[in-house]
Write a structure and sequence with these properties.
- The protein is an alpha/beta fold.
- It has one domain: Metallo-beta-lactamase, Chain A (4-Layer Sandwich), CATH 3.60.15.
- The protein has ten helices and 14 strands.
- The strands form three sheets. Strands 1-2-3-4-5-6-7 form a seven-stranded mixed beta sheet. Strands 8-9-10-11 form a four-stranded mixed beta sheet, with no helix packed on it. Strands 12-14-13 form a three-stranded antiparallel beta sheet.
- The radius of gyration is 20 Å and the shape is globular.
Length: 340
Protein backbone atom coordinates (compact mmCIF):
# COMPACT_ATOMS: atom_id res chain seq x y z
CA UNK A 1 0.00 0.00 0.00
CA UNK A 2 1.27 3.47 -0.86
CA UNK A 3 -0.30 6.71 0.33
CA UNK A 4 0.81 10.18 -0.68
CA UNK A 5 1.32 12.86 1.94
CA UNK A 6 -1.78 14.89 2.58
CA UNK A 7 -2.58 17.61 5.13
CA UNK A 8 -3.28 16.27 8.59
CA UNK A 9 -6.97 17.18 8.27
CA UNK A 10 -7.25 14.64 5.44
CA UNK A 11 -5.49 11.83 7.33
CA UNK A 12 -7.40 8.89 8.76
CA UNK A 13 -6.47 5.81 10.81
CA UNK A 14 -5.93 2.83 8.53
CA UNK A 15 -5.93 -0.95 8.70
CA UNK A 16 -2.80 -1.83 6.72
CA UNK A 17 -3.49 -5.55 6.82
CA UNK A 18 -1.47 -8.32 8.42
CA UNK A 19 -2.18 -7.14 11.94
CA UNK A 20 -0.73 -3.65 11.43
CA UNK A 21 -2.60 -0.35 11.77
CA UNK A 22 -1.57 3.30 11.36
CA UNK A 23 -2.77 6.36 13.27
CA UNK A 24 -1.79 9.91 12.21
CA UNK A 25 -1.00 12.06 15.25
CA UNK A 26 -0.64 15.86 14.82
CA UNK A 27 2.49 17.83 15.64
CA UNK A 28 1.14 21.28 16.61
CA UNK A 29 2.90 24.16 14.86
CA UNK A 30 5.33 21.95 12.93
CA UNK A 31 5.54 21.89 9.11
CA UNK A 32 5.82 18.08 9.18
CA UNK A 33 2.17 18.11 10.23
CA UNK A 34 1.93 14.72 11.89
CA UNK A 35 3.68 11.59 13.04
CA UNK A 36 2.42 8.23 11.81
CA UNK A 37 2.09 5.95 14.82
CA UNK A 38 1.79 2.24 14.04
CA UNK A 39 0.11 -0.48 16.09
CA UNK A 40 1.12 -4.11 15.69
CA UNK A 41 -1.19 -6.91 16.80
CA UNK A 42 -0.18 -8.95 19.84
CA UNK A 43 -2.09 -11.41 22.05
CA UNK A 44 -1.08 -9.26 25.04
CA UNK A 45 -2.49 -6.12 23.40
CA UNK A 46 -1.17 -3.94 20.57
CA UNK A 47 2.42 -2.75 20.56
CA UNK A 48 2.91 0.79 19.29
CA UNK A 49 5.80 1.93 17.13
CA UNK A 50 6.31 5.50 18.39
CA UNK A 51 3.63 7.48 20.22
CA UNK A 52 3.53 11.09 18.96
CA UNK A 53 3.93 14.57 20.43
CA UNK A 54 2.95 15.27 24.04
CA UNK A 55 -0.05 17.56 23.48
CA UNK A 56 -3.77 17.21 24.28
CA UNK A 57 -4.72 17.27 20.58
CA UNK A 58 -2.17 14.55 19.86
CA UNK A 59 -3.44 12.41 22.73
CA UNK A 60 -7.01 12.75 21.48
CA UNK A 61 -5.88 11.74 17.97
CA UNK A 62 -3.89 8.75 19.23
CA UNK A 63 -6.51 7.39 21.63
CA UNK A 64 -9.37 8.19 19.26
CA UNK A 65 -7.58 6.73 16.26
CA UNK A 66 -6.88 3.48 18.09
CA UNK A 67 -10.52 3.32 19.17
CA UNK A 68 -11.68 3.79 15.57
CA UNK A 69 -9.57 0.74 14.66
CA UNK A 70 -11.06 -1.33 17.47
CA UNK A 71 -8.33 -0.88 20.09
CA UNK A 72 -8.59 0.90 23.43
CA UNK A 73 -5.42 2.73 24.41
CA UNK A 74 -5.68 1.11 27.85
CA UNK A 75 -4.98 -2.28 26.21
CA UNK A 76 -1.63 -1.25 24.68
CA UNK A 77 1.04 -3.64 25.95
CA UNK A 78 4.15 -1.79 24.82
CA UNK A 79 5.61 1.22 23.01
CA UNK A 80 8.78 0.88 20.95
CA UNK A 81 10.31 4.31 20.39
CA UNK A 82 12.38 4.59 17.22
CA UNK A 83 14.24 7.55 18.76
CA UNK A 84 13.89 9.99 21.62
CA UNK A 85 12.65 13.09 19.74
CA UNK A 86 9.40 14.56 21.11
CA UNK A 87 7.27 13.82 18.04
CA UNK A 88 8.07 10.13 18.55
CA UNK A 89 8.51 9.62 22.29
CA UNK A 90 6.36 12.44 23.68
CA UNK A 91 3.19 10.47 24.51
CA UNK A 92 4.89 7.22 25.49
CA UNK A 93 4.73 8.09 29.17
CA UNK A 94 1.02 8.89 29.03
CA UNK A 95 0.31 5.62 27.23
CA UNK A 96 2.21 3.81 29.99
CA UNK A 97 0.25 5.67 32.66
CA UNK A 98 -3.15 4.54 31.34
CA UNK A 99 -2.23 1.03 30.19
CA UNK A 100 0.74 -0.17 32.21
CA UNK A 101 2.62 -0.66 28.92
CA UNK A 102 6.38 -0.98 28.83
CA UNK A 103 8.48 1.56 26.89
CA UNK A 104 11.51 0.39 24.93
CA UNK A 105 14.21 2.31 23.06
CA UNK A 106 17.82 1.77 22.06
CA UNK A 107 20.26 1.98 24.94
CA UNK A 108 22.12 4.98 23.45
CA UNK A 109 18.98 7.10 23.23
CA UNK A 110 17.95 5.89 26.69
CA UNK A 111 21.24 7.30 28.01
CA UNK A 112 20.50 10.64 26.34
CA UNK A 113 17.02 10.77 27.89
CA UNK A 114 18.56 10.22 31.31
CA UNK A 115 21.10 12.98 30.61
CA UNK A 116 18.30 15.34 29.54
CA UNK A 117 16.47 14.68 32.80
CA UNK A 118 19.61 15.61 34.74
CA UNK A 119 20.35 18.74 32.67
CA UNK A 120 19.22 21.95 34.39
CA UNK A 121 17.76 24.87 32.42
CA UNK A 122 20.70 27.18 33.14
CA UNK A 123 23.15 24.46 32.02
CA UNK A 124 21.19 24.14 28.76
CA UNK A 125 21.45 27.88 28.09
CA UNK A 126 25.18 27.96 28.85
CA UNK A 127 25.71 24.91 26.59
CA UNK A 128 23.94 26.55 23.64
CA UNK A 129 25.61 29.93 24.12
CA UNK A 130 29.11 28.46 24.16
CA UNK A 131 28.36 26.16 21.22
CA UNK A 132 27.10 29.02 19.03
CA UNK A 133 29.99 31.30 20.01
CA UNK A 134 32.60 28.68 19.11
CA UNK A 135 30.82 28.08 15.78
CA UNK A 136 31.27 31.73 14.82
CA UNK A 137 27.78 33.20 15.35
CA UNK A 138 27.85 36.82 16.46
CA UNK A 139 26.50 37.43 19.99
CA UNK A 140 23.21 38.94 18.84
CA UNK A 141 22.43 36.11 16.46
CA UNK A 142 23.55 33.53 19.00
CA UNK A 143 21.01 34.84 21.51
CA UNK A 144 18.22 34.61 18.93
CA UNK A 145 19.25 31.12 17.81
CA UNK A 146 19.05 29.62 21.28
CA UNK A 147 16.07 27.31 21.63
CA UNK A 148 14.20 26.51 24.82
CA UNK A 149 15.12 23.46 26.87
CA UNK A 150 13.11 20.50 25.54
CA UNK A 151 10.93 18.54 27.94
CA UNK A 152 12.56 15.13 28.32
CA UNK A 153 10.44 12.12 27.32
CA UNK A 154 9.64 9.31 29.73
CA UNK A 155 12.50 7.06 30.70
CA UNK A 156 12.19 3.62 29.09
CA UNK A 157 11.59 0.41 31.00
CA UNK A 158 13.51 -1.67 28.48
CA UNK A 159 16.65 -1.01 26.47
CA UNK A 160 17.23 -2.48 23.03
CA UNK A 161 20.41 -3.32 21.15
CA UNK A 162 20.96 -4.06 17.50
CA UNK A 163 19.37 -7.39 16.59
CA UNK A 164 17.14 -7.68 19.66
CA UNK A 165 13.61 -8.98 19.18
CA UNK A 166 10.81 -6.84 20.59
CA UNK A 167 8.42 -8.49 23.07
CA UNK A 168 5.76 -9.32 20.48
CA UNK A 169 4.49 -12.91 20.91
CA UNK A 170 3.70 -14.64 17.63
CA UNK A 171 5.58 -12.08 15.53
CA UNK A 172 9.25 -11.32 14.78
CA UNK A 173 9.94 -7.61 15.17
CA UNK A 174 13.69 -7.02 15.23
CA UNK A 175 15.57 -3.82 16.13
CA UNK A 176 18.02 -2.57 13.51
CA UNK A 177 20.37 0.06 14.94
CA UNK A 178 20.52 2.94 12.46
CA UNK A 179 22.41 5.83 14.13
CA UNK A 180 22.72 9.24 12.53
CA UNK A 181 19.54 11.20 13.17
CA UNK A 182 20.09 10.28 16.82
CA UNK A 183 22.78 8.01 18.29
CA UNK A 184 20.20 5.38 19.22
CA UNK A 185 17.81 5.57 16.29
CA UNK A 186 16.36 2.19 15.35
CA UNK A 187 14.36 0.81 12.47
CA UNK A 188 12.15 -2.19 13.20
CA UNK A 189 12.05 -5.12 10.81
CA UNK A 190 8.80 -7.06 10.90
CA UNK A 191 10.44 -10.16 9.53
CA UNK A 192 7.29 -12.25 9.19
CA UNK A 193 5.73 -9.67 6.86
CA UNK A 194 8.68 -8.12 4.91
CA UNK A 195 7.94 -4.68 6.34
CA UNK A 196 10.29 -2.13 7.86
CA UNK A 197 9.23 0.60 10.29
CA UNK A 198 11.79 3.25 9.40
CA UNK A 199 11.15 6.03 11.93
CA UNK A 200 12.95 9.07 10.55
CA UNK A 201 15.88 7.14 9.07
CA UNK A 202 14.40 6.63 5.59
CA UNK A 203 11.55 8.90 4.48
CA UNK A 204 10.04 8.91 0.97
CA UNK A 205 10.64 12.55 0.02
CA UNK A 206 12.67 14.44 2.63
CA UNK A 207 15.84 13.51 4.50
CA UNK A 208 16.28 13.62 8.28
CA UNK A 209 18.33 16.22 10.08
CA UNK A 210 21.84 14.94 10.80
CA UNK A 211 23.69 17.27 13.14
CA UNK A 212 26.41 17.40 15.80
CA UNK A 213 25.77 18.95 19.22
CA UNK A 214 27.95 20.62 20.32
CA UNK A 215 28.98 21.54 16.80
CA UNK A 216 32.72 21.18 17.29
CA UNK A 217 32.81 17.63 18.70
CA UNK A 218 35.58 15.56 17.14
CA UNK A 219 34.85 12.24 18.85
CA UNK A 220 31.72 11.37 16.84
CA UNK A 221 30.77 11.17 13.16
CA UNK A 222 26.96 11.05 12.92
CA UNK A 223 26.83 11.57 9.16
CA UNK A 224 29.35 8.79 8.61
CA UNK A 225 27.25 6.53 10.84
CA UNK A 226 24.10 7.56 9.00
CA UNK A 227 25.61 6.64 5.63
CA UNK A 228 26.75 3.26 6.96
CA UNK A 229 23.26 2.70 8.39
CA UNK A 230 21.72 3.42 5.00
CA UNK A 231 23.93 0.70 3.52
CA UNK A 232 22.59 -1.71 6.13
CA UNK A 233 19.05 -0.88 5.05
CA UNK A 234 19.98 -1.41 1.41
CA UNK A 235 21.16 -4.90 2.32
CA UNK A 236 17.70 -5.77 3.66
CA UNK A 237 16.32 -5.62 0.12
CA UNK A 238 13.12 -4.14 -1.33
CA UNK A 239 10.98 -4.22 1.81
CA UNK A 240 7.83 -2.14 2.16
CA UNK A 241 8.67 0.96 4.22
CA UNK A 242 6.42 2.27 6.97
CA UNK A 243 7.96 5.65 7.88
CA UNK A 244 7.02 7.99 10.71
CA UNK A 245 6.28 10.89 8.35
CA UNK A 246 4.94 11.51 4.86
CA UNK A 247 3.66 8.25 3.33
CA UNK A 248 4.13 4.49 3.09
CA UNK A 249 6.23 3.41 0.14
CA UNK A 250 7.74 0.27 -1.46
CA UNK A 251 11.41 -0.69 -1.88
CA UNK A 252 13.13 0.89 1.10
CA UNK A 253 16.52 -0.24 -0.26
CA UNK A 254 16.19 1.92 -3.38
CA UNK A 255 15.25 4.98 -1.35
CA UNK A 256 18.11 4.39 1.13
CA UNK A 257 20.56 4.30 -1.79
CA UNK A 258 19.11 7.52 -3.17
CA UNK A 259 19.52 9.32 0.17
CA UNK A 260 23.08 8.04 0.52
CA UNK A 261 24.02 9.33 -2.94
CA UNK A 262 22.42 12.70 -2.12
CA UNK A 263 24.68 13.13 0.91
CA UNK A 264 27.76 11.95 -0.96
CA UNK A 265 27.11 14.62 -3.60
CA UNK A 266 26.57 17.21 -0.86
CA UNK A 267 29.88 16.23 0.75
CA UNK A 268 31.72 16.59 -2.55
CA UNK A 269 30.19 20.04 -3.17
CA UNK A 270 31.24 21.14 0.31
CA UNK A 271 34.78 19.82 -0.17
CA UNK A 272 35.01 21.74 -3.45
CA UNK A 273 33.74 24.93 -1.79
CA UNK A 274 36.37 24.68 0.93
CA UNK A 275 39.09 23.98 -1.63
CA UNK A 276 38.29 27.31 -3.29
CA UNK A 277 38.89 29.25 -0.06
CA UNK A 278 42.51 29.71 1.02
CA UNK A 279 41.57 30.70 4.57
CA UNK A 280 39.98 28.42 7.18
CA UNK A 281 36.26 29.02 7.77
CA UNK A 282 34.06 28.85 10.86
CA UNK A 283 31.13 26.44 11.02
CA UNK A 284 28.76 29.41 10.77
CA UNK A 285 30.51 30.68 7.64
CA UNK A 286 30.36 27.23 6.07
CA UNK A 287 26.65 26.88 6.89
CA UNK A 288 25.94 30.22 5.18
CA UNK A 289 27.67 28.94 2.02
CA UNK A 290 25.70 25.70 1.79
CA UNK A 291 22.40 25.12 0.00
CA UNK A 292 19.27 24.80 2.15
CA UNK A 293 15.56 24.67 1.35
CA UNK A 294 15.57 28.47 1.73
CA UNK A 295 18.32 31.06 1.19
CA UNK A 296 20.44 31.60 4.30
CA UNK A 297 19.17 35.16 4.70
CA UNK A 298 15.58 33.86 4.81
CA UNK A 299 16.22 31.28 7.54
CA UNK A 300 15.13 32.18 11.06
CA UNK A 301 17.87 32.26 13.72
CA UNK A 302 16.70 28.92 15.13
CA UNK A 303 16.77 27.30 11.68
CA UNK A 304 20.24 28.75 11.11
CA UNK A 305 21.29 27.02 14.30
CA UNK A 306 19.97 23.70 12.96
CA UNK A 307 21.67 24.33 9.62
CA UNK A 308 24.94 24.94 11.47
CA UNK A 309 24.51 21.58 13.21
CA UNK A 310 24.08 19.86 9.86
CA UNK A 311 27.03 21.76 8.36
CA UNK A 312 29.11 20.61 11.32
CA UNK A 313 28.16 16.98 10.67
CA UNK A 314 29.24 17.27 7.03
CA UNK A 315 32.49 18.94 8.04
CA UNK A 316 33.18 16.23 10.58
CA UNK A 317 32.53 13.51 7.97
CA UNK A 318 35.01 15.15 5.59
CA UNK A 319 37.53 15.46 8.42
CA UNK A 320 37.10 11.77 9.28
CA UNK A 321 37.83 10.94 5.63
CA UNK A 322 41.00 13.02 5.68
CA UNK A 323 39.69 15.59 3.17
CA UNK A 324 39.82 18.62 5.49
CA UNK A 325 41.46 19.62 8.76
CA UNK A 326 40.30 21.66 11.70
CA UNK A 327 42.01 24.58 13.42
CA UNK A 328 40.80 24.43 17.03
CA UNK A 329 41.37 27.77 18.74
CA UNK A 330 40.35 28.90 22.20
CA UNK A 331 37.27 30.77 21.02
CA UNK A 332 36.56 29.46 17.52
CA UNK A 333 36.95 26.28 15.53
CA UNK A 334 37.67 26.61 11.81
CA UNK A 335 38.01 24.14 8.95
CA UNK A 336 40.18 24.13 5.84
CA UNK A 337 40.59 21.84 2.83
CA UNK A 338 43.85 19.92 2.86
CA UNK A 339 44.70 20.90 -0.70
CA UNK A 340 44.31 24.65 -0.03
Amino acid sequence: MKTRRRPYAEQRPQDLGGGVWSVPVPIPGNPLGYTIVYAVESPKGPVLVDAGWNHPDAWEALSGGLAALGHDVSTVSGVVVTHFHPDHAGLAGQVRDVSGAWIAMHEEDAALVRLMNDFAADQHDDFQSDMLRRAGADPGEARQAMGSRPIPPALPDRKLRDGDLVDLPGRKLRAVHTPGHTPGHICLHLEDADRLFTGDHVLPDITPHIGIYPYDRSDVDPLGEFLESLERIEELGPLDALPAHEWIFPDVAARAAQIRHHHEEKLERLRALLAQRPEPLTIWEVAAMMTWNKPWDDLSPVLRGMAAGEAAAHLRALEARGAIRRHAGVDLVRFQALDS
